[in-house]
Design goal:
It contains nine helices and 27 strands. With about 425 residues, it is α/β, with parallel strands linked by helices. It has three domains: about 190 residues, FAD/NAD(P)-binding domain (3-Layer(bba) Sandwich); about 130 residues, FAD/NAD(P)-binding domain, CATH 3.50.50.60; about 100 residues, Immunoglobulin-like. A hairpin with a 4-residue loop joins strand 6 and strand 7.
Length: about 425
């Protein structure tokens, strides 16, 4: 049995950022466990630019962004245990892992940060009719094939879902000579960043068909085509609008799921909306001493925000270790009208790690102009006017100690404003 001060499960951007910040804060014994043969997580296959604009004030590729944190971690003496799979996590912070060098490894940690990331939703989750031919991939799998393995998944492509990975692969496959026939999205709006809609679809004249979905996959040995159709307001296909599109490949970009099997094993409370743990102001889960950050907590749109959140988790660990795991009473934080969720879901002002608390949220639908209200039992304590919000792009707001002092509850509400309102406050 090894005894460790801080163990971070996951060596992607969240885990590496948390490790670097933890060492900077003076936590001497930091161990990162990762199942891959190299650290960096999903960023290793993200060769496109667009990373680092917030953290480094410059535009980097995914590998470049990851490399900066790998070098920082190495320089600070962070131990990274690679090719190691965590197979058990208990509520008393005991970790059981396995690798080919040491066999079974048992670790007792004072604190743990969960940074396992997320996985892609597959065909089985959305239940598309048809046989099971070759040529059906998640967008991330296709990205790995092209960018790391050097294989093309196909020549004529249809992409279902307008998530960012799917949009980026539409451009990538076009540049490699494939024909991307269309991107099909069941919602009346895109689920990707606006910049990716412009740079990956519009710049290459790739059609985006909103309020459409794939209703059948044709072919037995290899995909021969798909049938798509419009959907009504209840997301049901309108079969009168069905049309056949010949293709040899179908990519699925239909959402991401936080990897929380270990979290559930430890008895951590999971939020039904985010799919990640319920956390407090220092990103501590319902199990004392276990923290969460990055895509295992909730799916982010930018890796820079993952890094900021991971650093906050490291500060939370430092606070936890400093006060000996003192228990605090928390007030509830809830998402009201116009919002899907708000994080953290509970806070204690006394235990805040800084003078301001950052709250992250996603809207329920696109709005050209929206007013964000923060309410307590005393009424509205903060109001912000926001321009052009959409579910795919995170909203954040910082509230200071003075604003939060003495409140017994917080509720966030997002309401659409009329066109006459100017966004100047």
């Amino acid at each position: 049995m090894q005894n460790r001060e801080l163990v971070i499960i996951g060596g992607g951007p969240a885990g590496l950022s948390a490790a670097v910040e933890a060492r900077r804060l003076g936590i001497e014994d930091v161990l990162v466990i990762d199942r891959e043969s190299e650290p960096g997580g999903i960023l290793k296959q993200c060769i496109h630019t667009g990373f680092g604009l917030h953290i480094f004030k410059e535009e980097l590729t995914g590998p470049e962004y990851a490399e900066r944190f790998i070098r920082k971690a190495e320089a600070l003496g962070v131990e990274i245990m690679l090719d190691t799979m965590v197979i058990e996590l208990t509520s008393d912070r005991r970790i059981v892992a396995v690798n080919g060098r040491e066999g079974l490894v048992e670790i007792q940690a004072k604190a743990i940060i969960l940074a396992m990331g997320c996985r892609e939703r597959t065909r089985g989750a959305i239940k598309i009719p048809g046989f099971r031919p070759a040529g059906i991939f998640t967008a991330g799998t296709a990205q790995r094939f092209v960018n790391i393995e050097g294989y093309m998944p196909g020549c004529e492509i249809v992409i279902l879902g307008s998530g960012d990975i799917g949009l980026i692969m539409a451009r990538r496959l076009t540049l490699e000579g494939a024909k991307v026939r269309c991107v099909v999205e069941i919602m009346p709006y895109s689920n990707g960043l606006t910049r990716n809609i412009v740079q990956c679809l519009e710049d290459y004249s790739i059609p985006l068909l909103l309020k459409h979905t794939v209703v059948n996959i044709h072919g037995k040995k290899r995909v021969e085509g798909v049938t798509i159709a419009e959907v009504d307001d209840e997301m049901k296909p309108i079969m009168e609008t069905a049309q056949f599109i010949p293709c040899d490949t179908l990519l699925l970009s239909v959402g991401l799921i936080p990897e929380n099997e270990l979290s559930r094993m430890a008895g951590i409370e999971i939020d039904d909306v985010t799919g990640g743990p319920v956390v407090n102001q220092r990103l501590e889960t319902s199990v004392p001493g276990i923290f969460a950050c990055g895509n295992v907590l909730h799916v982010h749109d930018l890796v820079d925000f993952v890094t900021q959140e991971a650093m906050e988790a490291a500060r939370g660990v430092a606070s936890y270790l400093a006060d000996g795991g003192k228990k605090y009473d928390h007030i509830p934080v809830t998402a009201g009208e116009g919002l899907r969720y708000v994080l953290p879901q509970r806070i204690n002002v006394e235990a805040m790690t800084g003078e301001k608390q950052n709250f992250f949220m996603r809207c329920a639908r696109p709005m050209a102009r929206a007013r964000l209200y923060v309410e307590s039992e005393r009424g509205v304590i903060e109001s912000r006017l926001l321009s052009h919000v959409k579910p795919s792009e995170m909203i954040s707001i910082k509230l200071g100690r003075d604003e939060l002092k003495g409140v017994k509850m917080l509720k966030f509400i997002l309401q659409e404003e009329g066109d006459k309102i100017e966004c100047n406050d």
